[in-house]
Amino acid sequence: MTNNIITKLGALAIGARMRRLTDIFSKDVAIIYKEHRLDFEAKYFVLFYLISQKDGIGIMEIANELSLTHPAIIHLAKELEKRGYIQSVKSPTDSRKRLLKLSKKGKAALPEFQKVWNKIEKLNAQLMQKQQNHLLKAIAEMENILEEKSYYKRFKNM
Amino acid sequence: MTNNIITKLGALAIGARMRRLTDIFSKDVAIIYKEHRLDFEAKYFVLFYLISQKDGIGIMEIANELSLTHPAIIHLAKELEKRGYIQSVKSPTDSRKRLLKLSKKGKAALPEFQKVWNKIEKLNAQLMQKQQNHLLKAIAEMENILEEKSYYKRFKNM
DNA sequence: TATATTTACGTAAGTATTTACGTAAATATT
DNA sequence: AATATTTACGTAAATACTTACGTAAATATA
Q1: What pairs with residue B99 in β-bridges?
Q2: Whose CB among A54, A58, A90, B102 lies 3.0–4.6 Å from B106's, allowing a Cys bridge?
Q3: pTM above the 0.85 mark?
């Protein structure tokens, strides 16, 4: 299965390769949430976690943190609200803003979520410890390399 | 920019992290194609390359190779056909099948594409040589680890 | 050979996003 | 203070897929 064109292309298909790996992770995580009877999907995680840390955060701030557009956040937030995990209140200081925060149900569910997240984190750390090339470190390094000088600029200067 | 919640979450948000990095690559590659006046998008690359290697390949075979669904391939192929790079012929041995192959224009454009792809490949290899943890190797290692025993099974056995 | 199953493909509908656009409130400028 | 600009948000339309479903041809089975 992994001995196909994408694998053979190596460095040239690094994007497709990352997408494929991300898919594998997120499909299994989806099953894990389901088995824990949590009405939750992997895609909500970062948003829900961020809201749980902030207790009142605006749409744009979230969008920037998560590298998504604000319409995407609005949509995701609607689903979390529909499931009852979050609520929104108007900002007292800026009436353009709507602040997202955990609902009562969201706060109550947090410990159960934490249990799952702790296991996932531990498993991921274990998996990467097995590696000669640590996936998370590799990503972080690449981010730093490209931050120093963009991919585009590097291409131009070749 | 990279010192945000996704970064802080580390191993727990590895999916979001990979998506973010993939976005950075593919946006810059899009600009590169545009500057080379190639009527082409990064998302076509693996499909176009695969077709160029096979000279007659069915939709399902492509879908399996690329880890995408067959409707996705049909859609992408339509766009490549609209741009004139590929054409399709009925399989002589199996009349359910439609085989995709390069058109005359596609064949003619291939050397120009190769130039860009060679540069991209070289740049990617250069970038990864700078790393202490080689991104491509890290991905390949993780694929192998999860192929040996799935993420889900590992979670269950924790 | 007749029937059941599988395979290949196509289309339609749903989901997850982005881009584009509009409005209202806040902030900066004159 | 009046005006221009920016910011925050919402919605609509477009894009890139997926899942679900249907049909026809090929293959397996009775």
Answers
A1: B58, B89
A2: B102
A3: yes
